[in-house]
Amino acid sequence: MIRRIHEMSPRVPLTMIYGSRSWVDSSTGYQVKYLRNDSHVDVQIIKGAGHHVYAEKPEEFNTLVRKLCKTVDEEMKNSTQHREDAGSTQ
């Protein structure tokens, strides 16, 4: 993933979710954040969860995903509204 991260559009926001007890090292998420310093990259670590965060801590996982979806929806709405407002002034 690290070798190909530059191929992803910087306009695509990323959130990487890790369990604090996962065998997957969260340092990759922080490397992505560093490499995509011109993009929105968030690293979330859910305490007490292993690799299968969604199964081990479903309430925390679902709360986080709902929050992320709401944020993206609001940003999309604001972006669309901004483009519509800009188009109406031309």
Automatic annotation (TrEMBL):
Single Gene Ontology BP annotation: phosphatidic acid biosynthetic process
A GO cellular-component term linked to this record: mitochondrion
Gene giving rise to this polypeptide: LOC106157008
Signal peptide: none
Superkingdom of this protein's organism: Eukaryota
Organism per entry: Lingula anatina (Brachiopod)
Descriptive protein name: Protein ABHD4-like
GO molecular function: carboxylic ester hydrolase activity; lysophosphatidic acid acyltransferase activity
InterPro entries: AB_hydrolase_fold
Family (UniProt): Belongs to the peptidase S33 family. ABHD4/ABHD5 subfamily.
